[in-house]
Amino acid sequence: MASCGGCCGSSVKFEGLSSDYKRRLWTVIALNAGMFIVETAGGHLAGSKALQADALDFLGDALTYGITLAAIGATAAIRAKAALFKGFALFAMGLWVFGSTAYHVIVLDVPRAELMSAIGFLALCANVSSVLLLIKYKDGDANVRSVWLCSRNDAIGNVAVMVAAGAVWLTASKWPDLIVAALMAGLFLSSAFQILRQSLAELRAPVGVAAE
């Protein structure tokens, strides 16, 4: 049975020691890996920077969930260090998307809005499924919480991609796509800071004492 992390006023954080949680993670890993392939191909075909940024997020999430599974059951320090690594990876991803978007402000053609919409809707369905699978375990230690934040980012990102697709179609301009890609990069950085802050707090906490 899963720990009651974050409930009843307890300071004990859920550490992922649940067969149900692990099964859900495996399902989410499969969804993210599949959508990384679909969105990478679709992003290139549509010429959409927002789709390519979202595809990178899918890859990062699949890797993040794999690290989370590997760290479950390890010591608190190892779990916190795993989360720290994921935080730095998400931060680097955000910087890459920012830089790539800035470059494409000049060279990118107007993306194909209809393909953006179709792939964005498919990705949204995958991400909503992931969020529903993981929402039960959204509060936990840094290792577990990083999974929830990445899944939430995906769902928000796909809604943004679909909004961008509509705006691209209405304006016949590349700017909505680029603006959404930049906003998604900002979301990556914000989540990275949250993960890094919690994992560092857990690393500083005395042995046997849960970080608040």
Topology record:
Elements: H1 19-46, H2 49-71, H3 76-107, H4 113-134, H5 142-171, H6 175-204
Helix pairs in contact: 1-2, 1-4, 2-3, 2-5, 2-6, 3-5, 3-6, 4-5, 5-6
Summarize it.
By secondary structure, this protein is mainly alpha-helical. It has helices at 19-46, 49-71, 76-107, 113-134, 142-171, 175-204.
Q: What is the straight-line distance between the termini?
A: 22 Å
Low-confidence stretches: 1-10
Number of helices: 6
Average pLDDT level: 77
| Main sheet record | none
**Helix-strand sequence:** HHHHHH
What is the beta-strand fraction? under 5%
By DSSP, the count of extended strands is 0
What portion of residues is helical? over 70%
CA-based shape? elongated
User: Helix/strand-derived class?
Assistant: mainly alpha
> Cα-atom Rg, whole angstroms?
18 Å
What would you note in describing this structure?
- 44% of the residues are buried.
- The protein contains six helices and no strands.
- Helix 1 (19-46) packs antiparallel against helix 2 and helix 1 runs antiparallel to helix 4 (113-134).
- The radius of gyration is 18 Å and the shape is elongated.
- Mean pLDDT is 77; it is low at 1-10.
- It is mostly helical and 212 residues long.
